[in-house]
Amino acid sequence: MITIDIDRQVFNEAYFDYLDDNTRYLHFYGSAGSGKSVFVAQKLILESFKYKEGQDVLVVRKIEKTIKESVFKLLKSTIYKWKLDPYFDMLKSPAEITNNLTGCKFVFTGLDDPEKIKSISGIQKIWIEEATELARDDFTELDRRLRGMKNHQIIFTYNPIDENNWLKLLFHNSPWENAKII
User: Fold this and answer.
1) Cα–Cα distance between 103 and 111 in angstroms, integer?
2) Is the CB of residue 70 less than 8 Å from the CB of residue 46?
3) Which letter, b or e, does each residue of 143-173 get, where b requires 16 or more Cβ atoms within 10 Å of its Cβ?
4) How far does CA 25 lie from the centroid of its chain?
5) Torsion-angle region of residue 88: left (phi > 0), alpha (psi -120 to 50) or beta?
6) Would you state the pLDDT for residue 166?
7) pLDDT of residue 47
């Protein structure tokens, strides 16, 4: 196992305490440029060294074509910035990043066709980028992929939301015991 020594200063101090947080539903919301997506990318890259093959990270957005220019690019640039690229294979098509030491994969998909996720298994974490783009049914289907499993997590990143958005109604208005909103 490799020890990753990353200077604390590369992390947004507002989020640092959540680096090892495994709350089932972890929400990061704030304005554009607040660093929430950068932090989640950093967190998941570090965690990929703790997992083993079959404990993958599913990264989703509503529209698949937006993934390569957003979260895939962000994860890839963070890996290069931290000089961890010798430990990862990064494929563009299909978009996939694999930690060669642990076998942990980052699998990317859009929910423009919800049928795509029904056959996905071996997921440890799900990162929903721009979660406000999803419908509540999309979330329900993703949550079903992890139901009954321990130490599995769904991480949401999104900007401030409309009062009637399902995220606000479901999580903000009546907080869940197994959820944190940051």
Assistant:
1) 25
2) no
3) eebbeeeeebbbbbbbeeeeeebbbeeebee
4) 11
5) beta
6) 94
7) 92
User: For tokens 């599995």, what's the residue?
Assistant: 152
Give yes or no for a cis peptide into 94 (omega within 30° of 0): yes
Helices (H) and strands (E) in the chain, counts: 4, 8
Secondary element (H or E) of residue 172? none
Distance (Å, whole) CA 85 – CA 114:
32
Q: Against a cut of 0.70, is the pTM above it?
A: yes
Name the packing angle between helices 36-47 and 73-81 (round to 10°): 70
A 10 A CB-CB count for 20 gives: 10
Distance (Å, whole) CA 180 – CA 17: 12
Q: What is the DSSP letter of 86?
A: G
Q: Is residue 71 a contact partner of residue 41, using CB atoms and an 8 Å limit?
A: yes
Low-confidence ranges of the chain (pLDDT < 70): 1-3, 5, 147-150
Residue 104: partners with Cβ closer than 8 Å, 6 or more residues away: 48, 49, 51, 52, 53, 55, 56, 57, 98, 124
